[in-house]
User: What shape does this take?
Amino acid sequence: MNIEELKELLEFVSERNIAELELEEGGTKLKIRKSLAGPPPEAQLAMAPVVKMPESAAASVESAVGPGALEDGLIYVTSPMVGTFYRQPEPGAEPFAREGDYVKKGQVLCIIEAMKLMNEIECEHEGQLVKVLVENGQPVQYGDQLFAVRGA
Amino acid sequence: MFKKVLIANRGEIALRVISACRELGIKTVAVYSEADAHSLHVRFADEEVCIGPPRSAESYLNIPSIISAAEITGADAIHPGYGFLAESAYFAEVSEACRVRFIGPSPRAIRLMGDKSLARATVRKAKVPVLPGSEGAVESPEKALAVAHEIGFPVMLKAAVGGGGRGMRVVENEAGLGKAFLAAQREAEAAFGSGDVYIEKYLPNPRHIEIQLMGDSKGNIVFHGERECSIQRRHQKLLEEAPSTAVSERLREKMGRMAVQAAQAVSYVGAGTVEFLLDENERFYFMEMNTRIQVEHPVTEMVTGADLVKDQIRVAAGEPLGYRQRDIVVRGASIECRINAEDPVTFAPSPGKIHAFHVPGGPGTRVDTAAHAECMVQPYYDSLIAKLIVHGRDRKEAIARMKRCLSLTVIEGVKTTIPLHRRILDDPDFRAGRYSTRFLERFA
Assistant: This one.
């Protein structure tokens, strides 16, 4: 998609009674959302993200996200503490949540172990769990992205 | 020796610890709040862990976060620096319980010396002179008179609860005591809800003289001379020097031995500082003990050639001190100026971006700082930008050297206390070494 086509598309959405338009073409996803009043619709062109990650987490994030694009409209569940990330309540048990699951507010997504205490991390949003961004048993810092959820 | 040390601090002291670790071949872990993501201590450490948002309570004071960071990085020791958790006996206990060595004294020593009245009682038992006073609150003007006669006028009446000068009165002689006592009680009651007043000997022009101690786990404790820290504003030190012009070789011996005695009373291991008040007649009294490395430790390092932070790490790892009291010699004179991001007249904090930064070099010059051009002086933490330290063959040269350094320092973008330091160095009383803790009042 070139800049001319994008401009046309934006005008199109602006003039019509369209609140949101999502278009997938080739390897590119485009989402245009119009706010009810005021400024013209904003376009968010999905591209490979330029994200500054602490070195320890960087490697696993790349493999989880892959070469494809990250969409907007995603909410990231970030780590509220420092510790070790576990996907399941204990070794051998089922993970709390899998990619594709619909998750609810208050639902436990993972455990972060800190100082021998298992802290259950709850989801603060509702929506579809799109991606798990860290590996089981990986050390995490405050602010590390753990899950990507597409809000309802 | 430790393989990996986590530094539970930030700014210049974090860099100081990283420096010592580098020289000892120890790997370092920096912990940082989101506000410090681009700090030098993060950049220079071997590993870094983000422990929380900017607020100290949620980051640098967040014990679970810091201990957890030690766990996930496999650090075998924590250096707490100064401030923050450096004197938290609880933090030291948790660290040791999680099998991460705390680089500092035992939790018991921290507790005993952390409580001012406990500390006084402990050292008094060890025959260390303590400022004379009533044991607790004084019930009546008659009792007050009895105590005052015992300790000698002038005396200070102080509210047992609270501070800030309220419920405080200086009484020169017997005649004024009764009235002053009742007035102090009333004031204390009104301000703090408790009319309890105690009495202490009043020193009109004391000097704050502190003794640097270092003890190893084999029970050897030595003193590294004294530091003169009387130049303070509201109990915040601004300029320190070593040696003190008020302390003769003989007095240094006496105070040093007393400080060691105080530390031995709690089987002290590591770096510590005993603070004394010195009166005009060479009498000194124990005030308190700081169970950590102090901001002004560089002036001691300059005059004795010691590396106090390396010593801290070595003794914490179980190594013997490696030197004796007689090996410690004080040579020349050293001065330190704390350059803060504050208005030099009003002392209002001046956080913001430093856009030009240059520090002086040359003989006898040392600068301890984590600042640099384009760095942010954060509003969340203390306002210290840099410590400018000089050493000279004598005090005259040290003063001239400090004046030279201050004028060849560039810090633009925030206000600094440099103009105030220059005024202090030009003051005739300062230059003559004739000052007390009341010195800064003339600039207030």
Q: What stands out?
A: Residues 37-69 of chain A have pLDDT under 50 and may be disordered. Chain A has two domains: 3-45, 70-151. The longest strand of chain A covers residues 108-114. Helices of chain A lie at 3-15, 55-65.
